C-alpha cells in the first residue's frame, strides 16, 4: 500500500512571529519525559523526527502526558503523521457509517484517512473513540505498518486470554519481538501514550526507520497548495514560545479561541491535519517550524468566476469595444465624481486582481457593502463578483447608491467607494 500526502492547499508566507513581540526560535522540550524512562528513546526519536508533538505548558516547554491512556483518535493522528496518509476530500462520506463520528472532531481527517486505509474499522457502526487496549493496539499496529512474519516463531506468547480476533496480531508482534510480554500480554489493559510510542518505534525499526521520513512529502506541500480562500502561515514560535496571544486569527476571520484551539491540536499532532467545524484547517510542520492555517475548499472560491481569471496580466484583459485606455480613464473619473457627490460616498478602497490573495478582499468588501445597505447583513460575495464582471465587461462605473465600483484597466484594480466602513482588514 502506498502512503503519501496529497493535499491541495496554498500558503501565504507571513512574518515568522508576532510583529510587536519577536521571539527567537528555540528548541522545545518535554517536561515529563526523562532520559531515565524506558520509553525515552522511542519518544525522543519520534519527537525529533517531527512525528509527535505535545501540549504547551509554558514558554518552550511541552508536556507529552506519557502516562495518560491513549485514545483511538490520537493513534489515528500519529499513524497519519508517521505514514503520511493522504487526507481524503470525501471524509464526510467515509465517516457516515459510524454513528459516533461527526465532522466537528478536530482529528476527523486523520480518523477518516485511517478508516479509508483499513487501519481502523470500528464495530457495529461505531468507531468507539475510547482508550485503546493492548490487543487492539497490536491489531491496528500490524495493519498500519503492514507487518509480516519473518518466518520465525520461537517467541511463543500466551494467547489464552487474548480475544480470538486479535490473536494473530499479538502472535505476530511477539514473533517480531515488538513485545516482550510473553507469559501474560495483558491484552485487556489500556495502553498509555508512552507505551504506544514504544510499540510503534519497535515496529518502525523492524520495517527500517529510514522508511519513515516526515520530510519526504511535506516539502512538496508548498508546490501543491492551491484552492484555499483564506490562508496564513506563521512560525510555531508564535504559539510555542510566546506568551502574547496569537493574533493571526484576524487573517482567518475566526475567533481567537478557535484559532488557538487549532494551533494547540496542530502542535500536539504535527504533520497531521486538524479540522475545526469542518471548515478551518491547521497543520504543524516542525521541519519548517511553521503552523499553517487555512479554510477548506468546500468554501466557494468566488474569485474563480471573475472575467480576469482567464488572463495573466492587466494588459491581457480586452477593452470594451471602441474604447481606449485614455477614454476609459476620463469617463470613469467623471462619472465616479458625480456618483460620489450624489450619494455622499466617502470611503475609497481598492485591490488588485492579479497579485496576492484577493479572495478575502472580495469577502470582506461584500460584508461592508451589505452592512452599508441595511446595517443588518452582508451581500452575497457571488453578487459582488457579478457586479465586478459588469464593470470589467462594460468599463462603466456601477452606481449602487450606497457604494460605487469600477475597474482600472491599466493597473488591474477594482475600486470601491462606500458611504460607511464598518470594519477594515
Report on the architecture of this protein.
The chain has 425 residues and is of the alpha+beta class. 35% of the residues lie in helices and 12% in strands. It has helices at residues 40-48, 72-83, 91-95, 108-116, 134-145, 167-175, 193-207, 214-218, 221-224, 237-240, 249-252, 256-268, 325-343, 359-374, 381-394, and strands at 29-30, 55-58, 61-63, 231-235, 274-276, 280-285, 290-295, 347-352, 398-399, 403-408, 413-418. The strands form 3 sheets. Strands 4-7-6-5 form a 4-stranded antiparallel β-sheet. Helix 1 packs across helix 7 and helix 14 packs across helix 15. It is elongated. The model is unreliable at 1-26 and 216-229 (pLDDT under 50).
List keywords for this structure.
11 strands; alpha+beta; elongated; about 425 residues; disordered N terminus; 4-stranded antiparallel β-sheet; about 10% strand
Amino acid at each position: 500500500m502506498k502512503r503519501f500526502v496529497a493535499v491541495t492547499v496554498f500558503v501565504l508566507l507571513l512574518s515568522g512571529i508576532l510583529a510587536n513581540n519577536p521571539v527567537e526560535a528555540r528548541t522545545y522540550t518535554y517536561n515529563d519525559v526523562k532520559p531515565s524512562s524506558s520509553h525515552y528513546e522511542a519518544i525522543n526519536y519520534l519527537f525529533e523526527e517531527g512525528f509527535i508533538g505535545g501540549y504547551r505548558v509554558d514558554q518552550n516547554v511541552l508536556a507529552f502526558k506519557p502516562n495518560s491512556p491513549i485514545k483511538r483518535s490520537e493513534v489515528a493522528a500519529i499513524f497519519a503523521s508517521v505514514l503520511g496518509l493522504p487526507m481524503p476530500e470525501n471524509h464526510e462520506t467515509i465517516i457516515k457509517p459510524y454513528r459516533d463520528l461527526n465532522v466537528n472532531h478536530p482529528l476527523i481527517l486523520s480518523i477518516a484517512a485511517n478508516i479509508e486505509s483499513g487501519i481502523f474499522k470500528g464495530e457495529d457502526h461505531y468507531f468507539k473513540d475510547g482508550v485503546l487496549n493492548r490487543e487492539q493496539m497490536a491489531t491496528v499496529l500490524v495493519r498500519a505498518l503492514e507487518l509480516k512474519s519473518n518466518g520465525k516463531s520461537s517467541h511463543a506468547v500466551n494467547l489464552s486470554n487474548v480475544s480470538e480476533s486479535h490473536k494473530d496480531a499479538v502472535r505476530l508482534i511477539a514473533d517480531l519481538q515488538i513485545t516482550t510480554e510473553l507469559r501474560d500480554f495483558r491484552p485487556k489493559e489500556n495502553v498509555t501514550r508512552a507505551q504506544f510510542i514504544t510499540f510503534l518505534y519497535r515496529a518502525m525499526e523492524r520495517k527500517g526507520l529510514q522508511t519513515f521520513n516526515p520530510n519526504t512529502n511535506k516539502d512538496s506541500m508548498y508546490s501543491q497548495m492551491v484552492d484555499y480562500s483564506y490562508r496564513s502561515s506563521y512560525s510555531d514560535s508564535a504559539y510555542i514560545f510566546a506568551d502574547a496571544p496569537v493574533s493571526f486569527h484576524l487573517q482567518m476571520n475566526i475567533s481567537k479561541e478557535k484559532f488557538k484551539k487549532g494551533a494547540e491540536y496542530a502542535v500536539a499532532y504535527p504533520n497531521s491535519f486538524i479540522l475545526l467545524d469542518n471548515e478551518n484547517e491547521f497543520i504543524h510542520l516542525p521541519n519548517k517550524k511553521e503552523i499553517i492555517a487555512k479554510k477548506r475548499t468546500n468554501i466557494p472560491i468566488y474569485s474563480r468566476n471573475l472575467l480576469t481569471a482567464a488572463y495573466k496580466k492587466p494588459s491581457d484583459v480586452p477593452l470594451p469595444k471602441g474604447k481606449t485606455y485614455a477614454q476609459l480613464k476620463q469617463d470613469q473619473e467623471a462619472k465616479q465624481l458625480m456618483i460620489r457627490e450624489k450619494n455622499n460616498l466617502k470611503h475609497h478602497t481598492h485591490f488588485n486582481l492579479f497579485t496576492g490573495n484577493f479572495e478575502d478582499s472580495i469577502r470582506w468588501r461584500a460584508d461592508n457593502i451589505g452592512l452599508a445597505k441595511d446595517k443588518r447583513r452582508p451581500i452575497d460575495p457571488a453578487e459582488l463578483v457579478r457586479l465586478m464582471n459588469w464593470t470589467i465587461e462594460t468599463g462603466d462605473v456601477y452606481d449602487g447608491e450606497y457604494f460605487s465600483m469600477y475597474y482600472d484597466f491599466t493597473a488591474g484594480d477594482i475600486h470601491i467607494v462606500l458611504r460607511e466602513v464598518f470594519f477594515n482588514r
